[in-house]
Amino acid sequence: METIRALPGEPLHPKRSWRPSARDHRGAVAVEFALIFPILVLLVLGIIEFGAGFHAWDATQNAAREGARLGAVDASPSDITKRVRGTTSFLNQSDLKVTIECQRKSGPFFTCSSDPAQWVEGDIVRVAVEYHYDYLTPLPRFVGMGPDIRMRSVSEARFEGV
User: Fold this and answer.
1) How far apart, in Å, are the Cα atoms of 62 and each of 57, 72, 127?
2) pLDDT tens string 74-108
3) 46 with 109: CB under 8 angstroms?
């Protein structure tokens, strides 16, 4: 910086540059980070929660499909339930409900019999999987989405006989 001579009686002072120096912005980065950090945390928690929820939803879809595929060739509701629960073994099994129903000739759906002789080729087997997904993070509760998400996946297949 160059110094300008003052008039008699005035103090000497340095000539200021039109560009601010780096020293003038020392706390700006900390303030900007403090403003952005909560938004960044919410975004990361949202991504984690969405990923885990989507994984649980995809598992219920796959389990219902696997159960219906087995129901097309196996007339045992206990085997179908075992297959569904095996497919979703990483989910909390106490929050998982499996419902198996049958339909004959466009009639109403009813609870399938465990006796294979009662099943008729051409029956429709419906496997429904319900799951109560509890959130991993407090974010969804904080924004008013409730304590959990109730997922329901349904798949149907035609019984082909034993």
Assistant:
1) 9, 15, 11
2) 878 999 999 999 999 999 999 999 999 999 888 89
3) no
Q: Which residues neighbour 84 within 8 Å (Cβ) at sequence distance 6 or greater?
A: 63, 64, 66, 67, 98, 127, 129
Going by the DSSP 8-state scheme, the letter that residue 107 receives in this structure is: -
Cβ proximity of 56 and 131 under 8 Å: yes
How far apart are the two ends of the chain, measured CA to CA in Å? 95
- C-alpha separations of 135 from 47, 50, 150 in Å: 12, 9, 11
Nearest residue to 71 (alpha-carbon basis) of 1, 151, 134, 158: 158
Stronger pLDDT, 60 or 16, i.e. the higher one: 60
Q: What angle do CA 86, 88, 92 make, to 5 degrees?
A: 115
pTM of the model: 0.75
Report whether 12 contacts 3 (CB < 8 A): yes
Express each pLDDT in 150-162 by its tens digit: 999 999 999 987 6
């319900």: which residue's tokens?
130
